[in-house]
Amino acid sequence: MRVSWMSRVLSWVAAALVGGVYGVAGTIGHSVMWGPIPVGLIVASVACAAILIAVRALTHDRGAAVAAGLGMIAMVVVISGAGPGGSVVVPDSLTGRIWTYVVAGIVLLVVAWPSIARTPVRAEAPITAEPEVRES
């Protein structure tokens, strides 16, 4: 079954929106700490990785994973700066820097992962019933 270009573009737009939502949610929640444990960073990283893997696995399209990753990175960059009131969602701290690089690394890893479904299938020679005996 061949997919039309319009449905492919719509899936990319939907993937970018989903990635953007996860990027915003992860960026807001990444700074939650439970004592010395960065729970927010761990949960946000796992959630972003899970949605990117799900998009890649369900659509069988690397372009959709790229779109979701770009939406995620775009939202991290957009809300990382100072807002109009001067508030900053991602402070210039170790956790904020780690979050920025973790998102980019997850996107790179999921997009660059090779597709298992497209590995070549090795054809085997048919087996004959009995080997042919030659006399010399």
Task: Write a compact overview of the structure shown.
This protein has 136 residues and is an all-alpha fold.
Q: How does this model look, in words?
A:
The chain is an all-alpha fold. Helix content is 62%, strand content 0%. It contains four helices and no strands. Helix 2 (39-59) runs antiparallel to helix 3. The longest helix is centred in the first third of the chain and has 25 residues, at 5-29. It is elongated. The N and C termini lie far apart (55 Å).
Question: What is the element layout, followed by pairings?
Answer:
Layout: H1 5-29, H2 39-59, H3 62-80, H4 94-112
- Unreliable residue stretches: none
Structural class: mainly alpha
Instruction: Give the N-to-C terminal Cα separation.
Output: 55 Å
Strand percentage, roughly? under 5%
List keywords for this structure.
4 helices; mainly alpha; 136 residues
